[in-house]
Design goal:
Elements lengths: L39 H10 L1 H21 L4 E9 L10 H6 L8 H9 L1 H11 L3 E5 L6 H7 L21 E8 L8 E8 L2 E6 L6 E4 L3 E6 L2 E11 L5 E6 L2 H11 L1 E4 L6 E8 L2 H59 L6 H28 L7 H24 L4 H36 L4 E5 L12 H27 L5 H8 L4 E6 L2 H13 L6 H4 L4 H16 L7 E5 L7 H14 L4 E5 L8 H4 L7 H5 L5 H4 L1 E5 L2 E4 L8 H5 L2 H10 L5 E5 L8 H6 L4 E7 L5 H13 L6 E7 L24
Parallel strand pairs: 13-20, 14-18, 14-19, 15-17, 15-18, 19-20
Antiparallel strand pairs: 1-11, 1-12, 2-9, 3-8, 4-5, 4-9, 5-6, 7-8, 10-11, 16-17
Length: about 750
């Protein structure tokens, strides 16, 4: 605090005579060349001030998260793993591998992944498990599922207070057949247990209601079509309800396709993992197992499909070729028996060999064409090439036949018979070998995919992760609370550190920093229950920190009083709700307690309530004397405390500002000032009305009351400017309601009896 010889008044504030020589800079603390600094202590103080807000938001979000973690349905996950084996392109070749190369189907891992998700596989699994029929107990919304989990395996008494049909235990219903008209798909119906294996079917927005027996199949005609249902089992007490829904088959397939998570493990490893999540562990295990089995079955069937088709064709042709061979042998034997052995000349022999070779090639081409037609059409380039080769062979046969005709008839007959035997024998032998190879392929064919990890029914859910949810909720609550705290701080813009005022005004102008008093809060809460009297903290809690701060201000004011033009001091503030009346009343009590005679005047003719601190009425007060209705002596309430007198507002007049301009107000102050050591004035706020400017002209010192976190820098600058314009030089600032902060100076002094050193009670 300042001493009489080193007294500082507000920067840019005029002295008597009041001349505003330098205008007030709205942001004087921003000097050219100043580098902005990060106010770490200010950030922590903001968090400390908003600790209850941050804690409340965190507690609320955490409570919601805990509630969600308790009532959320568990989510299970099952998986299977498939290995796709790529066959080596450098594998050794043999007759079997060459024959089977036509039927080889190589698929990369990416193709297998798409096949696993295809409708060809998923639809079979959906149909086998009838996943388009959805049946579940009717639980109480939000928390009903949690109660059912706690009582799983036990039948409950249906309903909430006997209504609604809600179930709370392990109720279950199995439905194997449920078909509805297309217009009724995806609608929710209700099965209500009637007892004695009876049930009632209703709902779906329809008037259809019928009763049935468990185990029997029903067909019920409706205007839209036929409803067919069969309930296999119903494990529930009478009155329990179940929700039943017939889903669209295509919609169910598409939903499962989207739910399947298929990915290759590693880069080009050929190992595929299939994951599926759901709320029913048994359901997802059954579905994934069925998908795996169906995929493996179809993959293996595809590998042997072409070989089996070719083998079926050969099995039909081999008996025919065998009969043709036998008939050729019989005709040749008959010819030899009839004519004896015939020696062919070299030319005839060569012609026969050429003809036999050509016919063999022709039959081979026919065989290849037949096999290719099982996979391709006549227009395919490969089939067209076979046709061209066959035409060339036919031309060659025609030429050989023409040459043979020149031989003797007997040689021609022998050549023809021999040729038929050779051709039929070669063809039958080739086709027999091919058929045998295809049989080996069909029997020994192994799929290039294998299931290395089959699905296993999950035992524990993967969601919700309750500890993680709660931890994230706490972090989110702290983040949101901190964000809201800093946002509120930025919007309000209130000063929370008295040093900011001194840096702004570049002078040591804060005469007192009055801390927040928790004792005052307690006294106010108690006073509200007892009546209209306000508690005077300096009288009821004289050791409070706020009262000690006022005592410090009393000491500073004592050294400054000789420099004032009179002993009249005014406390004013920029706006309402700054604690100005609290400061005025308690400071008057503190000064009076030091033995000084003090007069406290409530000059707030708009909303003054100082009389409530002393339990007196406002009617006999200041306004009565200004109007001349009462003399000064009759409006002073003597000894409201020892050495403290008080003048209330009196009846509140309609024209307050003009009322205070009356000469009687100045005369009143001149009359009472010599009789007291200190006269305190408590006017209305400075910025909303002009009363304080009128009253301040009579005061020897004017102090501006600012409240921590409420008063802004702009309000202080505007207050100083208005006082300067009215010719008033404010003396300093009282920083009120300052919260306990990090690094704040001061602290509560603990009173007690000191112990005596070396003294022992006898």
């Amino acid at each position: 605090m300042t001493t009489p010889g080193e007294h500082h008044q507000l920067t840019h504030v005029v002295h008597s005579p009041p001349i505003l020589s330098v205008p007030v800079n709205p942001y004087p603390y921003e000097r050219p060349g100043d580098e902005p600094t990060v106010d770490i202590k200010g950030y922590f103080n903001t968090l400390y001030d908003s600790r209850w807000l941050i804690g409340g938001i965190t507690a609320l979000i955490t409570f919601v998260a805990v509630l969600y973690a308790l009532v959320a349905k568990p989510v299970y996950e099952d998986n299977l793993m498939i290995h796709v084996e790529e066959e080596s392109p450098n594998a050794s070749k043999n007759i079997l591998s060459e024959a089977s190369s036509l039927f080889e189907t190589k698929k990369a891992a990416i193709a297998e992944m798409e096949l696993l998700r295809s409708r060809m596989v998923v639809s079979r699994a959906v149909d086998n498990l009838q996943l388009y029929i959805q049946v579940e107990p009717k639980y109480l919304p939000i928390a009903g599922f949690w109660f059912a989990n706690q009582n799983s395996g036990v039948l409950s008494e249906p309903g909430l207070f006997g209504y609604g049909g809600y179930v709370w235990g392990g109720e279950r219903a199995d439905v194997s057949v449920f078909d509805v008209p297309d217009a009724w798909l995806n609608r929710e119906f209700t099965l209500t247990a009637q007892g004695n294996n009876r049930y009632r079917f209703s709902g779906g927005g329809q008037r259809l209601v019928f009763e049935g027996t468990v185990g029997q199949r029903y067909r019920v005609p409706t205007p839209d079509g036929v409803v067919e249902i069969k309930v296999d089992r119903m494990y529930a007490k009478a009155g329990a309800r179940f929700r039943i829904k017939r889903m669209s088959r295509l919609g169910t397939i598409q939903a499962i396709q989207l739910a399947l998570v298929i990915a290759e493990q590693g880069k080009q490893s050929g190992v595929i993992e299939v994951k599926l999540q759901g709320e029913d562990a048994k359901r997802i295990h059954s579905l994934l197992s069925e998908v795996g089995r169906e995929y493996m079955r179809q993959n293996l069937a595809r590998k042997t499909e072409e070989a089996e088709k070719s083998l079926a064709f050969l099995n039909q042709q081999l008996p025919i070729l065998k009969r043709q061979l036998e008939q050729s042998e019989d005709r040749y034997n008959q010819f030899r028996n009839a004519h004896g052995t015939v020696d062919l000349q070299e030319e005839a022999r060569m012609s026969l060999e050429q003809a036999a070779a050509a016919r063999a090639r022709r039959m081979e081409l026919i065989q290849k064409k037949t096999e290719l037609l099982s996979r391709f059409t006549e227009d395919h380039p490969v089939v067209a090439a076979i046709n061209r080769q066959r035409k060339e062979v036919d031309n060659e046969l025609d030429a050989i036949a023409a040459r043979i005709k020149t031989l003797p008839v007997l040689e021609q007959d022998e050549a023809r018979l021999t040729r038929d035997i050779k051709v039929n024998t070669d063809l039958y032998t080739a086709l027999s070998n091919t058929a045998q190879q295809l049989r080996l392929i069909s029997v020994g064919r192994v799929s290039n995919v294998r299931m290395i990890d089959a699905p296993i029914a999950p035992e524990k859910p993967i969601k919700p992760n309750r500890p993680l949810i709660v931890a994230l909720a706490v972090v989110t609550g702290l983040f949101l609370g901190t964000l809201i705290a800093f946002t509120r701080k930025a919007i309000k813009g209130g000063i929370d550190d008295p040093q900011k005022i001194e840096r702004m005004l570049r002078a040591r102008v804060v005469y007192a920093s009055i801390p927040h008093s928790s004792n005052q809060d307690k006294l106010l809460r108690k006073a509200r229950g007892e009546g209209g009297v306000l508690p005077l903290l300096a009288q009821m809690m004289p050791e409070d920190e706020a009262v000690e701060a006022l005592r410090s201000f009393r000491a500073a004011l004592q050294f400054s009083m000789p420099h004032f033009k009179n002993n009249i001091v005014m406390f004013t503030g920029p706006t309402r709700a700054l604690g100005k009346s609290f400061v005025s009343a308690n400071f008057a009590a503190v000064v009076a307690a030091s033995g000084k005679r003090v007069l406290l005047i409530d000059a707030d003719l708009r909303n003054g309530h100082l009389h409530r601190y002393f339990g007196v009425s406002r009617e006999r007060g200041l306004s009565r004397t200004i109007t001349g209705a009462l003399p000064v002596e009759e409006i002073i309430h003597h000894s409201v405390m020892e050495n403290l007198d008080f003048i209330p507002t009196g009846e509140l007049p309609p024209n307050r500002s003009e009322f205070l301009l009356h000469l009687n107000f100045g005369s009143l102050l001149e009359a009472v000032s010599p009789h007291y050591d200190l006269v305190l004035l408590d006017p209305p706020p400075l910025l909303p009305v002009s009363d304080a400017l009128i009253i301040g002209a009579h005061a020897g010192a004017v102090f501006i009351v600012a409240r921590s976190g409420v008063t802004t820098e702009a309000q202080i600058n505007e207050s100083i400017k208005r006082l300067n314009q009215a010719g008033i030089s404010p003396q300093g600032v009282l920083f009120n309601d300052m919260a306990l902060r990090l690094g704040a100076y001061g602290g509560q002094y603990k009173y007690g009896t000191p112990s005596q050193i070396g003294y022992v009670a006898g």
